[in-house]
Automatic annotation (TrEMBL):
Keywords, comma-separated and alphabetical: Hydrolase, Metal-binding, Zinc
Molecular function terms, GO-annotated: hydrolase activity, acting on ester bonds; metal ion binding
Domain Succinylglutamate desuccinylase/Aspartoacylase catalytic: 31-111
Record carries keyword Chloroplast: no
Keyword Metal-binding listed: yes
Regions crossing the membrane: none
InterPro entries: AstE_AspA_cat, N-alpha-Ac-DABA_deacetylase
Cofactor(s) named in the record: Zn(2+)
SUPFAM superfamilies for this protein: Zn-dependent exopeptidases (SSF53187)
Protein name, per record: Deacylase
Amino acid sequence: MPDNTLTFAGRGPGTTHSLTWASFGDRKARPHVHVQGGLHADEGPGMLTARMLADRLAEEEAAGRLVGHVTVLPAANPMGLGQFIHGDITGRFDLYDGRNFNRAFPDLAEAAAVHLKGRLGPDAARNTALVRDALLAALVDSPPVDPADALRHALLRLAIPADVVLDLHCDGEAEVHLYTQPTSLDAMRPLAALTGCRALLVAEVSGGNPFDEAVVRPWLDLAQRFPDHPIPPACASCTLELRGRADVSRSLAAHDAEAILDYLHHLGVVEGAVNLPAPACEPTPLAGSEALIAPVAGLLSYSVSLGDQVTAGQTVAEITDPLSGTVHPVCAGTSGVFFARPATRIAEVGKRLGKIAGAHAFRHGPLLSP
């Protein structure tokens, strides 16, 4: 389990940031699974789960049970871990320019295509290796200009060699849920079942080019660009949301790490069989997920609990005006599982009050929270 460190320059003179990850098993072995936590640096559950997964993988490696290769990056955003305002960490957005750390990852397909021209052939396995090399070369072709983009490049450099990529996050308050793409869905169904996901949200393009899509989308684009040569979708990825920000405990993290380890057994990365439980939900389109919006300001309370099945027209939350006492109900516009909500209970106009996983797509454009 050697630790590895990558360092990149910070914004100020003499400042640097470092990423440290652990590697388990033979680096040339397949399948290769990459796991990271804390890309949003104020989301602790994924970081603790990744740390405890690394500890369990060290035990499995010492016992000689590693068949594939696993890389684990417990803290994927050293920049965000250093951002505090009045004693509270703020790690979702770069305070320098306001950009979400999990958006604006580079699209590498076009630059990779230049490296692939005239080199692809009829062998899908050989083409897969060529595409991975080309994607890494595309990163070199477009050097980052600031620390946040250097971070994005570094994260892609670690993830591109992998067959499966798991990006661990959390919401304000939430049930476990998972975001993925159609080509990754079959690979992620077992993970959703093992982690007890209450929502499994699927979109080919969610908007903003987040990390999980940035490692998958180039494979699809390159397959379309070179239709005469077989290029399989050789990377499957997801964003796994491990409840809410306050759900940081060693017992929960140990439970989640064990579920991910069971997933690695299922993939054949670690020796040993696992029985998949029945899924707690079926996939639904991300475009069918409703974000409830506060129409007025006031004190926020909820009429339903996380995990409840709600129906269109049902009151989900109430906003009380502390001055007049007026109570304004907020009703569901679609039917589905109420799976996430903010951790705060004071609403401003336009605040996102919760998410409902509906079965029927109705939204267009950017589908993720800002």
